[in-house]
What does this fold into?
Amino acid sequence: MGMALYVWAFIRLPKVLQIIEVLGPTSQRLEQSNLAHATSTFLVEFHEAQCFFVTSIEIALLYARSRIDASGSTNWASLFQFIALIEIVACAGAWTILLTQISLRRARLDSTYYLTLSTTALALAFATGATTDYPSMDEVYVFFKRHNHVPQCGNNISLRTFCLTSDHLTKPRSLKSGYFTFALIGILWYEKVFELVRNGTWFRKKHRHYLEKLHVPTVIVVMFSFAAEIATIVLLFLNLTDLIKLRRELDLGEWGVGQVIAVLVWAPVISKYLYLIMFGIEKGFLYRLSRAFMVVKRPIETENEDEDEDEDEDEGDTASGDTDDADTVPLVPTHRNTSAW
It folds into this structure.
């Protein structure tokens, strides 16, 4: 959760600095710094690892929900807390996935692959929340009838089983409705499909006169995405509040083995991020790519051309070999001279 907020804030920082005209050069230097390049790379790898991590958690939560008997609950209060913990953890994974996917979109690093991973994780989070129901009094009686019976009272359930304070009755926020989540992921899919269709060669040749009209709905999409971005952060903090409250109720002072393992899972991603910051992107990927390829830094002029939405189509179709100026060569796979190795 902390890493997702950090990356989101870093991606947003240059735009905030551009609003302040005095700090305009600072914003440009930040965008071209080694820290910015390393953070964008870290964002992509962090999101991919996070999607698989959250997907694994959601599958484990669905499995735990189907095995309430093995939860170790001894009374209604502990059973209520167990179900609440499932909902809170499911929501926490969903909000962080949404936030990093929005950050990818803002950094123009999103792809169909990452969007598919996000959709899968969110669908599992919704399934976890939709299948998590709090038991009624009759269901609690049937559940604990085999465990908390008192022989001295005719094998009836102990009355302490049903002791429940008003604090335990407070249900956390869940994804059972799913309207906001699916609306936002639907908007992201709409933008991705719209971009693929608009940039397609066949569409640009056959229906170029429709491009101006197709830009109109994107204004509404951008406004909705900005509002959804703020709402996601608010819901993320509310979910964190629920988690802290439940942690105090359960009196979890020390970390368990599972929590330590969950934190150490991110060690490879964070260590690579620190390596890229210290030694740069070129050296960071030098020994990760095949010998047939090398890392080439994209010139600033090429980046500006790619970000210009109104550039001429012919300029966008210029091949890298059509010019002798090395400063205009885009970032493309380049063959190494393997004999130098």
The beta strands are 149-150, 156-157. The radius of gyration is 26 Å.
